[in-house]
Structure formats: structure tokens, C-alpha cells
Amino acid sequence: MRELLEFLNFGPVVLEVLIALAPLLIIFTIFQLFFLRLPKEYLGKVIRGIFLTLIGLTLFLQGVKVGFLPVGYQIGETLSRIDARWIIIPVGFLFGLVATLAEPAVRIMSYEVEKASSGAIPARIIIITLSVGVALFVALGMARLLLGLPLKYFLIPGYLVVLLLLPFSDRTFISIAFDSGGVATGPMTVTFVMAVAVGLARAMENRNAVLDGFGLIAQVALAPIISIMIFGFIYSAKMRRKK
What we know:
By secondary structure, this protein is mostly helical. The chain folds into 2 domains: 1-71; 82-242, no CATH class. Helices cover 81% and strands 0% of the residues. The protein is built from 10 helices and no strands. α3 runs parallel beside α9 (187-203). The protein is flat, with a radius of gyration of 21 Å. It starts with a helix and ends with a helix.
């Protein structure tokens, strides 16, 4: 009963969403009055879209607050009590894989890539490449947490790899790769995987929830860039051999 009442307490979340949407609504109103002057039919569709966005964001953020984050913390704390802690690394790989496969933004971008390339770059390949790349870096993040290594030992070499790959990568795939970095760090990854990492760091001895639990999303943002650039290198080489 308490959980149900907590879920139904939408007041603070609605206020947060309204504050977030207010600047967009103000800008749109100004443009509508002085520049756009959209017809009433189209304006009605925009208003309905804004209303649905308000409802969707409210339900999502409330679900994250009441469901995703507590479950993530609980999973992290449970994993910290396992004797064979090395198993956290493959579990992290699995979490990264399923979270990216479920990420709506990843699928949208993949479909757009397929459409823009007239089917030459299949959406399924992009989704698999991103999912495996993110899964590997989440596993690396879990290994960093277990070993207590500083984040710079992973980020600096990662970005050096990106810089080394740039001259050998096709410009098309470079653009896709850097967009993928933002797409893969969407609501599913941030709310679930990060909660697991923070819960794990909070429950482990000699670990700090802030210093060790955070930083995983920075590693995840690197994963799509590297994986898509490597895929682009392989794809371009394959196309050259065909020609």
C-alpha cells in the first residue's frame, strides 16, 4: 500500500516536468505569435503533442524514481555480498547489453541510419554493434569498481584510441559514431546501470559511492564511438574489396 501511495504522488514530478518544458513553451508561443502563425489544425496537433509529452515524461520520471533506481541500488547491494565477486564483470556485460537493446533512442538512430543510407547500413547491425560495445565497457566499468582504479586510467586511453582511429575512419561513420555516444547514454542505461554501480560501490568496503560509483556513464559514452568507428573501418574495407 505504501509503495502504491508513493507511486501515485505525482505532484513533485509534474512540477519538475513543467519547469523543464516551460522555456520551450515560451519560445514556441513567441514564434507562433510573431513568426510562424501556424493554422489552427496544426496548432491543435502541437498542443496535443505537448500534453502527451507532459504525461509521458511524468510517468517515466515517476517510474524511474519509484522503480528503476531502488531496484538498481538493491541489485548492486546484492551483488556486493557475493563471495566470487569476479562474477560482477559478466553480469555487468549482460546489464549493458540488455539496457542498450532496450534503449529507444538507439533504435531510432539505427533506423535513421538505415533510411539515410538507403539500406546499405542495416539498422540491426548498428544496434548489435552498439549493444556489444556498451556491454564491454560496462564490464570494464565493473572491473574498475572492483579493483578501485581511477577513472582516468580508462578515459584517457579510450580517447587516445578514438584519436588514433579518426584518420583511418570513413567520415560518414565518424558522424554516426559521435552521435551514438549521446544516444547510448539514454534513460535506460543511465537510470538502471548507473544505479547498479552506485549501489555496488555504496555496499562494498573501501569504496566510495561518489568516487567509484559514478564515471561509468562516461565510459559508456566512449563505447559507441569506438565500436562504430571500428565497424566503419571494417565496413569500408569490405566495400573497397567488393569494388
